[in-house]
Amino acid sequence: MTDASAPRRPLRFNAFAMNCVSHINHGQWVRDDTSQTSYTDLETWTELARTLERGYFDALFLADVIGTYDTYRGSRDTAVREGLQIPVNDPSLLVAALAHATEHLGLAFTQSVLQEPPYNFARRLSTLDHLTKGRVAWNVVTSYLESAARGLGLDGLPLHDERYERAEEYTDVLYQLLEGSWEENAVLRDRERRVYADPARIHDVHHEGRFYRVNGPHLSEPSPQRTPILFQAGSSERGREFAARNAEAVFLGAVSPEGARTQVEDVRARAVAYGRQGGDILFFQGLTLIVGSTEEEAERKLADYREHTSLEGFAAHMSGSLQLDLSQVDFDAPVGEIDTNGVQGFVRSLVEGAPDKTWTFGEVLRARAWTRPVAGVPERIADELERWRDAGVDGINLAYVTSPGTFTDFADQLAPVLQKRGLLKTAYEEGTLRQKLFGRGDRLPASHPAARHRRG
User: One of this protein's Pfam families, by short name (predicted)?
Assistant: First the structure.
């Protein structure tokens, strides 16, 4: 486990975004003070990346989804009207351009193990790691929409546990390609002998598994990190096991610091059981931070944002995630009148968690439609962030309400206070993203399962 006597490092901060119109806080794209409809404009993204670097963010984390949210009302129409993660562009294609626009910012992108054979994806990872000088990260996901399976030509979405079995094999194939195919000294660049690389030091990968077959060498020479930083989000039993074996950073959606502590301790204990160190995994809690110069201003901003929240957009999003059509629940019905025996767990949790049983279902849904909002002056927000750090959280995954407004407020108003409190770094470390996040070497540690594929 981690050393309790060690000095506390500042929190790490990721900006949570997506290459689409409406990511999480649905309905805000209609506002005049957000650039969400300019998501196809590269300048919008480069300006955001520079703002994040000015605010000492560790990384821009780009979410992604394959498929459409078509469970709500039995079609994708609501998602299309709301711009709810459709249209959506490939996040990986932003990485190289944003690396050119910045010097230190990490660049994480999401891709499902169902999307592409690992042989080709390994080349994409190495290419991006080269172009970013070691600042790229991959968020490992397994997909959860039936529409994704249809679009990818599968007979159906594999069951939950099978998707994680695929992920285990997929990542193992990647480790073989990225870590074991090219020896460390395979590239010679010998001009006199006209030998760029030594064929004897480049090895074919021979993999015959349940889901994947590979017979050949990795196509790219070793990049600064070889294997990029590995992000993962999953709170199920299989998700936690996968994280304990493979992840370097885990996203949390805990409802309280105490809940976060429970998950952090659980996954770290599992990692130690697999021979890893507790500190090999960082944990990022998802929050929305709303900064005001006074408490009254912050509350006014929060109320204004909530007025723009689209309940239909949020309901369509959650319906797809849960494979449960929330249109069957009346938004205007007081939660005290909803029959909890007739609805599934998520709806029941909304009903039971309502502070006032006279609230309508729509009001409760609106209250839950946010990624843990914290509104206040910078000092109050710093107090709240300190609570999360004290619970064992290593970083914050900051969801936006308006872009770049949420991130500009962080850089201009919140960052100076956090730096004074020791909650945010005052300078970037040199080196790769792994060096910056962990303060150690560029490569995965020897305790990681990828290391067993290394030669020599």
Answer: Bac_luciferase
Q: How far apart are CA 107 and CA 105, in angstroms?
A: 6
Q: What is the pLDDT of residue 352?
A: 60
Alpha carbons within 13 angstroms on the beta-carbon side of residue 74 total: 1
Residue 208 tokens, joined: 């015959």
Answer whether 442's CB lies under 8 Å from 431's CB.
Answer: yes
The beta-strand segments (E) located in 163-276 are 187-190, 195-197, 205-208, 213-216, 229-232, 249-252
Closest CA to 163 of 85, 95, 248, 66: 66
Can you state the percent helix, strand and coil of the chain, rounding each to 5? 45, 15, 40
Tens digit of each residue's pLDDT (9 = 90 or more) over 17-46: 999 999 999 999 999 999 999 999 999 999
**DSSP per position, 82-126:** HTBS-SB--THHHHHHHHHH-SS-EEEEEEETTSS-HHHHHHHHH
Give the three-class secondary structure for 10: coil
Q: Which helix (H) or strand (E) holds 311?
A: helix 311-322
DSSP element (H, E) containing 420: helix 415-420
pLDDT tens for each residue of 171-212 = 999 999 999 999 999 999 999 999 999 999 999 999 999 999
Structure tokens at 352: 């039971």
Between CA 84 and CA 395 the distance in angstroms is 27
The residue assigned the tokens 């990485």 is 95
Domain spanning 12-180+210-294+371-453, CATH architecture: Alpha-Beta Barrel (3.20)
Dihedral sign, CA of 421, 397, 276, 455? negative
Cα separation, 397 vs 122, whole angstroms: 26
Q: Which two tokens stand for residue 54?
A: 């000015």
d(CA 234, CA 254): 12
Please compute, for residue 161, the number of CA atoms within 13 A of its CA located in the half-sphere on the CB side: 1
- The domain locations on the chain are 12-180+210-294+371-453, 310-369
**Which of 62, 58, 72 has the alpha carbon at shortest distance from 24?**
62
Q: Hey, what amino acid is at 154?
A: L
In angstroms, the CA 415 to CA 421 distance is 10
User: Within 13 Å of residue 81, how many CA atoms lie on the same side as its CB?
Assistant: 12
pTM for this predicted structure: 0.92
**Cβ atoms of residues 154 and 206 within 8 Å:** no
**Number of residues that make up the chain:** 456
Using alpha carbons only, what angle is made at residue 277 by residues 271 and 282, rounded to the nearest 5 degrees?
75
